[in-house]
Amino acid sequence: MTIHFVMCASGRRAPMFFRRRWDQAGAVDETFGGLRVGTDLVAVDDVAESVARFGDRYVGRVYTAHEVSCCQGPPSVVAAGLAARFAAKEATIKVLRPVDHQPDWRSIEIRRDPAGWCAVHLTGGAARMARQQGIRNLAVSLTHESGMAAAVVVAVCDGGEEKER
């Protein structure tokens, strides 16, 4: 089924649904250029234990200064925020699909917008992997509840080197 939006007389967009026959269905790659989805789930206590055990050595190896500044408050709040960002970094690695080596943790930064949402910002090796694979846009969603933190990352791809295979 394909969904198209049409403009109503009131100025609002309304969906119109079109069914395709099975032999006319286009692949996601043909329609959107290619989508990848990565997800990860992290126990907040695991991150809290790493912070307690390794302190700044752990935090400085995994998180950027911006990420740490976004996770302020009592230890439980800090751990939940860091765990959600760790899950987002893992989910991003899943959409990057590294072959030889994983990029540096800090080359994947989860930035919080002043309005409240988060975005993925890549630098260094992570940015190079994304460029080589034709990843042109990333979206992230974070959550934490009942001792667990989760993230979903969606990548829109042009194809890059992967399409040539």
Question: How are the SSEs ordered, and which strands pair?
Answer:
Elements: E1 2-7, E2 13-18, H1 28-32, E3 35-43, H2 44-54, H3 56-62, H4 65-70, H5 75-96, E4 108-112, E5 118-122, H6 124-132, E6 135-145, E7 148-157, H7 160-164
Antiparallel strand pairs: 1-2, 3-7, 4-5, 6-7
CATH class: Alpha Beta
Distance between the termini: 29 Å
Which structural class do the helices and strands define?
Answer: alpha+beta
Query: What portion of the residues fall into strands of 2 or more residues?
Result: 25-35%
Question: CATH architecture, please?
Answer: Alpha-Beta Complex
Q: What's the average pLDDT?
A: 85
Instruction: Count structural domains.
Output: 1
Can you give a write-up of this model?
The protein has 165 residues and is of the alpha+beta class. It has a single domain, classed as Alpha-Beta Complex (Ribosomal Protein L22, Chain A). Helices cover 39% and strands 32% of the residues. The protein has seven helices and seven strands. A three-stranded antiparallel β-sheet has the order 3-7-6. Strands 1-2 form a two-stranded antiparallel ribbon. A hairpin with a 5-residue loop joins strand 4 (108-112) and strand 5.
Short description:
The chain is of the alpha+beta class. Helix content is about 40%, strand content about 30%. The longest helix has 22 residues, at about 75-95.
Descriptive tags:
single chain, 165 residues, alpha+beta, Ribosomal Protein L22, Chain A, two-stranded antiparallel ribbon, 32% strand
